[in-house]
Amino acid sequence: MKNKYAHWAAVILILAALLAGVGITSLCFGSANISPAKLLPAFMCGGNSIEHTILWEVRLPRIMLGIAVGGALSLAGVILQGMFRNPLVEPYTMGISGGAALGVCVAILLRLGRNFGSWSLPVAGSIGAAATIFAVYLLSTEQGGLNIRNLLLIGIMVSFICSSLITLIMAVSKVEDLHGIIFWAMGSLEQSNPLLVKIAMFVSVIALVLSYFFCLELNALTLGEEEALHLGISVENSKRLLFLLASIMTGLSVSVAGIIGFVGLVVPHFMRLFLGSDHRILLLASWLCGGLFLVFCDTIGRTIISPTELPVGVVTGLLGGIIFVYVLCRREKSDARNKRLDMRL
Amino acid sequence: MLEINGLTCGYESGFSLSNINLHVADGEMVGIIGPNGSGKTTLLRAVTKVLKPLSGAILLEGENIRRMNVRDLARKVAVVSQNAESGFMSVEEFVLLGRTPYYGRFRFLETKFDLAKAREAMALTDSLKLKDHLMSRISGGERQLALIARALAQEPKLLLLDEPTTYLDITHQVGILDLVRRLNKNFGLTVIMVLHDLNLAGEYCHRLALFERGEIRKFGTPEEVLDYRLIEEVYKTVVVVEKNPISQKPYVLAISEAARDLNKISTTKGLQ
Hints:
The structure holds 2 protein chains of 2 kinds.
Chain A: H1 2-28, H2 36-44, H3 50-84, H4 96-109, H5 112-116, H6 120-139, E1 141-142, E2 145-146, H7 148-172, H8 175-186, H9 194-211, H10 215-221, H11 225-230, H12 235-257, H13 263-275, H14 279-303, H15 312-344
Antiparallel strand pairs in A: 1-2
Helix pairs in contact in A: 1-14, 3-9, 3-12, 3-13, 3-14, 4-6, 4-7, 4-8, 4-12, 6-7, 6-12, 9-12, 13-14, 13-15, 14-15
Chain B: E1 2-10, E2 16-24, E3 29-33, H1 40-47, E4 55-60, E5 63-64, H2 70-74, E6 77-80, H3 91-96, H4 112-124, H5 140-153, E7 158-162, H6 170-187, E8 190-194, H7 198-204, E9 207-212, E10 215-220, H8 222-225, H9 228-235, E11 239-243, E12 250-254, H10 257-262
Parallel strand pairs in B: 3-8, 3-9, 6-7, 7-8
Antiparallel strand pairs in B: 1-2, 1-4, 4-5, 9-10, 11-12
Helix pairs in contact in B: 4-5
């Protein structure tokens, strides 16, 4: 038992250290490189130097948003995968992102951004997300219980409906709006409003803390709903609250950063491969790893073909997909080797 | 221990248990038998509050389970069922999940005491040697032991088993039931188990409840319940009931169609 906790602590420390490392690296690189030696002085003093402004007003908020959104999406992924006992579920399969995207598209089409300022898009996104959460939730409730299979199917269908509506909106919208929609749909961590960054960080951390109240429920749910009930878990309540928690995190992420795919699918899956299915470690580890992964991808995205920026969704998809397939194949090979050894013994 | 009075409950699809009365004494070992679809598992699901009763009451140590929350219920009643998924975890982690009802809202790490209880449960079921194996890599018999260990880690007073011997060979069938019998005898654990095998049910249980179409047809000692007329009527098949020469318990023999024809035994009235 001591061993297990020591192992968990080591995992957390390593991930935190990596996150700090990637964060510092990300502070240094960009269209204007700042050497690591100059980083600290530029950070601390000189209220008016260009470096100071870049660090505090451009890069740091971006990193913070990356951690918040990456963490929230991964956490939502872990929770949903645990709840559904299905490794292919991710926050975006639930229709929430589709709803948020639809909300933002409508806002762009109606020119709300021009009339009401930078707040209007995230607010519209949240409203869209909330509307789909309620629709999906109500449609998949039967006899006072949440039917998990229905939830998944209805979520996917709502996703499709939303994406069709978005295509419809794009087809009828003007060229200048179209650019806004596409840019937003590709996802970006560039966020000009510092308050939104703070809100995202706050909600993401609070959600992480709240999720720990459900780690035992999630562990028990890996055995199946009826088994969880036998272990004294009030299954219906847990499912409801977990779904709500995952929905809020996804809605928030999509509203502030657009649609950044793959983080919520690959990171939780990856963590499961290495850490097993104990959610007491999975939740925190996935949150950290999600932030780490997204900040890393974003740093690559904005430096690799600088001054042009690559959409971060492209980097997460490419990098995440390739790493994942590589690890999976290696693992299967080593599994096969172990099996041969077993047989020889 | 358990008192079921006038219980009626069912599913949307129409199948239901009606007017079930069953009293199980402390330290008793009761077998639930009956044809497929006669409501055996449904009864277990009612006792664990998966299904809500439409009428009647289930009392556990005199307390109506409707008024108990699921966590308190899980500290008294543990279930060994066939449909547990196990994910990607070791046997020890799996057994430790049995301690879940004892964790608090603000405590999610197991204590030394929890671990000791889990180890004790594994030792009792002879599964301690498997503790670091993955659940997905152990055999059916070992899996059954791990399931029982997890149930014991809950420190229950009432143990419910749903077809604990399905898919096992005769060695493991006897092994599992001997274990359950030992737990019953040594620790006074009350046991209710659904069994398909009438011979094992007769051999191991103090009393048997024979279910037919959602009702209890007969509740009594194995000698009373495993009567060939009753079995032929409920199961709609020809059987012979004999006495086990060693244990003196009744056992039931099925007879093939060819043997029936040869001996000119007409099928019972229930069969077309």
